[in-house]
Amino acid sequence: MASHLLLTIGRHVTDDEPVALYFLKSLQVSFAPSNRTTSYSRGFYILVDSFKRGSASSEACMNNGAVTVHSGQTVLFGTANFGSGTYPPNMQCSYSFSSDLKDHLLAISMEFETEKCCDVMFIDGIAPPPYNLYNYQGFMQRTFQFASTQVITMNFTSDGTVQGVGFNGSVYNIDCACGSGVYQLTPNDTLLQITSPGFLHGAPTYCPELNCFWTIKFPVDYEVMLNISDINLRTGSQQDQFVIADNFARVLLSTNSTTYYGPTRFIITSGQVSINFTSASTMVLSPPLTREGFLVDLRMVKKYIRRTVITFTDDSFMADISTRSFVEGLNVTYEYSITARPGKKVTTHFFTTLNGIANLEIYDGSDTSAAMIDTSFLYNLTTMDGVPMSVRSTGEKLLVRVRPNLFNTKEKLDFQAMVTDWSQGTHCTHGINSTQPYGREENKWKE
């Protein structure tokens, strides 16, 4: 006689998961077909196996017990023979992984294959309520999943019969703190690193739902060399976005690419650069094949300035400030200090595009303490046909700085522009096509 009676009725009682039933001493099975007509084949099969009852053991459980996972730490767990043999019968593994750190998330990556019917792992803490309890059995594809709580518990038990490959995984404690804010570079503090959270601590990927924003400021007589040392965003997360912009929110780089092939080095001259990084809310990911995130290095250096002073008179009121392919050097800032005749204003006319060629700063006054004029519209042009674009001062003085782009993608660098304080009635740019210098000029070099 069976140790107890079990009655099952209906279609596909074990639809997706085999059901394991355990009996002591003996078992009797009875089957009575129904007289109902069905559209599917009816039948069943039963696998019967016997085994010797034994005491539960955790000997083959790697890192069994409670573990506090520290920031940047990786804790391994699994069955001892994973990859080389099956796990033993009558196993009982109990894990508890916890973190008490603010702005950190636990994450788990695990490979799992056990006897589908009978050897089960229950996991609590990686899914949000009310679905926070998972059961793993059979074969489970390796995934990378962030936890919904600060504690992950896992309990695995095996019976005394057929065994399987086992399981093997890692638990991570990933720092999600951006460190967003305003950073000031100074002559005594010229270096800065900006990274995705957790990158420098060996995190395999970055946290979900990030919105990091860094603003880096520096004196205008200096420039910043920005180098993207590493960038690798998540596969399949097109909402992840990395953006670099200048003082006027002109976007220098914007990417959500898994593999980035664009420029990695930039010269920033406008006294400020901002970096913004956002990530999608996805909690379950494909296991990272390489470390995901980014690393940006910034280095501030003194500008090397070639200064030209231009003073307009009634006899000379136009001047060419073209750089002639920057023949005097590519690692130079070409500065033009222009003074109009009394009561007049300075207008700068541009005959070449700027994007990828040069960085342009224009100050509405005699020096860099004056307000900087927004020139971002000039970088959006791909051609300079028709009436040239222009910028006008509000007073008698204007300061123009042109910095060639060392890391350009153009075959030839060139900058062509002219300045004047001449106007006829309303502001007009027609007929102004001079390429020869006018006005009184004085050249100086300064560091």
TrEMBL record:
<dbReference type="InterPro" id="IPR059047">
    <property type="entry name" value="CUB_M02D8_5_3rd"/>
</dbReference>
<dbReference type="Pfam" id="PF23061">
    <property type="entry name" value="CUB_M02D8_5_2nd"/>
</dbReference>
<dbReference type="Pfam" id="PF23063">
    <property type="entry name" value="CUB_M02D8_5_4th"/>
</dbReference>
<dbReference type="InterPro" id="IPR000859">
    <property type="entry name" value="CUB_dom"/>
</dbReference>
<dbReference type="Pfam" id="PF23062">
    <property type="entry name" value="CUB_M02D8_5_3rd"/>
</dbReference>
<feature type="domain" description="CUB">
    <location>
        <begin position="178"/>
        <end position="301"/>
    </location>
</feature>
<dbReference type="InterPro" id="IPR059046">
    <property type="entry name" value="CUB_M02D8_5_2nd"/>
</dbReference>
<protein>
    <recommendedName>
        <fullName>CUB domain-containing protein</fullName>
    </recommendedName>
</protein>
<dbReference type="InterPro" id="IPR059043">
    <property type="entry name" value="CUB_M02D8_5_4th"/>
</dbReference>
<dbReference type="InterPro" id="IPR035914">
    <property type="entry name" value="Sperma_CUB_dom_sf"/>
</dbReference>
<dbReference type="InterPro" id="IPR059048">
    <property type="entry name" value="CUB_M02D8_5_5th"/>
</dbReference>
<keyword id="KW-0677">Repeat</keyword>
<dbReference type="Pfam" id="PF23064">
    <property type="entry name" value="CUB_M02D8_5_5th"/>
</dbReference>
<keyword id="KW-1015">Disulfide bond</keyword>
